[in-house]
Amino acid sequence: MRQEILDFVQTLNLGTVTVSTEVPYEENGVQLYIKNLKKVYIDTDNVEIEPITQSLDGVNISNEVTSVRLFFACDAKTLLPNYEDIVADLKTAKDITTITGVQRRECDVTSTTEGDVLLTELEYRFTKLST
Length: 131
Hints:
The protein is of the alpha+beta class. The chain has helices at residues 2-11, 32-35, 83-91; strands at 18-19, 26-27, 30-31, 39-42, 46-54, 60-75, 104-114, 117-130.
């Protein structure tokens, strides 16, 4: 799902914010998205299985929840003039049509300040039934 989100985000007009194809990692103790302001990084898929029910004939029904996190940071002292629009556009990635077979699509946005940097994290969650 990371690739689908990456492909979608690359089509968005994010102004001066660019999109990296690299996954976020730490370099010399600093996360890349903190080091490279105004650059979007998308992490790899994280899959969790949440059991719903077990039947006597051995069929297990579960929710398979795939989450993908997106990060970008900018200067907190001079907020991007289109910051709210960027976040709104990034949230729409949960609705892309190339991700199919899911029954629930969610996106949470968290913003925190670290020194003079505003860090924005979006977590997309896609849930489907699995047996």
